[in-house]
Amino acid sequence: MAVMAIEAARHLAKPGHAVRGYRLRNVRIFSALVVPETPEGVESQIFLRNAENSRTTGVQTIECREFNVYVYSDNEWREVCAGSVVTEYEETPDEVYGADERSLTKDYYQSMYQQALDRCSATSTQQVFYDAGHKIGYGFGPLFNTLHDLAYDPEGDQAVAVVKPDEWRGKVPEKNSQVQPHIIHPTALDGVFQVTAVATTKGGTQLGPLQAPTQLRDFWISHDLIERKPSTKLNILAQTTLQAARETDSFILAINSETGEPAIVIDGYRVTTVSSLSYK
User: Fold this and answer.
1) The pTM is what?
2) How far, in Å, are 5, 43, 112, 201, 203 from residue 8 at the CA level?
3) Distance between alpha carbon 98 and the CA centroid of its chain, in Å?
């Protein structure tokens, strides 16, 4: 659903203007968008309307749109997600915008990731993590088994992993001819979110309750991902920021392996407990 909003904003971007990135704000997720394994698939629609807080400054133009996502199920349209999406443009050269500021931001996030990498001394495997996911009730299909190089802090609340944004192409080569340019594939973005579960389950070694995403407070993704190389990887850090009885909030950072630039920054990714299972 986040990908739908990002791609809708990309297609509505002003021609001839350089886009810096897209920001989702105050996204509420009411239910999952389940895609059945049938030829018919699922019918969905996204509606966007201009928000009042679009603006232009001397440095940057910002377009803000509210959006709602609906799916057709049981002979009716049902809302599954709502929020706002912001398109951020770069209107001025780096000399004006501030190359130093961008360099400082890059250094800050690289340092944050490196510190987490140093702390995440315990490793896990893809099989251990996804086997645990099946026991909990997630049921990730092969396309969604996207995490590599899983590691976590055995004494803390952080985890790191790697996602290959275009790995899915090798799993469904018959679809490659139908691929349109896109910022990020849904399976890759789902993998980015999954790193939060690596942190909370200690790489799948500690089973917990079944949880589903219910909120994205602030989510930023770089437009530069559309120009990624086939070899590009996302180096991901997830840190639990709040753990309550039924809700868990996390911070997520993904760094482009080719450029070292932050590709995704998420503050306030919330999952809510759906059910607790008896594990066997």
Assistant:
1) 0.90
2) 5, 16, 31, 34, 34
3) 27
- Show the tokens assigned to 159: 């985890």
Mention every residue, 6+ apart, whose C-beta is less than 8 A from residue 178: none
> Are the beta carbons of 280 and 272 closer than 8 angstroms?
no
Please tell me the predicted confidence (pLDDT) of residue 101.
Answer: 63
Burial class (CB in 10 A: 0-12, 13-18, 19+), 182: middle
At 204, list the tokens. 């799948």
Taking only the tens place, the pLDDT of each residue in 14-48 is 998 999 999 999 999 998 877 666 667 789 999 99
Q: 83 and 5 in contact (C-beta within 8 Å)?
A: yes
Report the candidate in 259, 262, 269 with the shortest Cα–Cα distance to residue 239.
Answer: 269
Check if the beta carbon of residue 221 is closer than 8 Å to that of residue 6: yes
| 164 within 8 A of 233, measured Cβ to Cβ | yes
| Each residue's pLDDT tens digit, 167-220 | 998 888 776 667 889 999 999 999 999 999 999 999 999 998 999 999 999 999
Please, which residues have CB within 8 angstroms of residue 206's CB and are 6 or more apart in sequence? Answer: none
DSSP string, the chain: -HHHHHHHHHHTSPTT-EEEEEEEEEEEE-S-----SSTT---EEEEEEE-TT-EE-SS-EEEEEEEEEEEEETTEEEEEEEEEEEEEEE-S-HHHHTHHHHHHHHHHHHHHHHHHHHH--EE--HHHHHHHHHHHT----GGG--EEEEEE-TTSSEEEEEE-TTTHHHH-GGGGGGPPP-S--HHHHHHHHHHHHHHHTTTTTS---EEEEEEEEEEEEEGGGGG--TT--EEEEEEEEEE-SSEEEEEEEEEETTT--EEEEEEEEEEEEEE-----
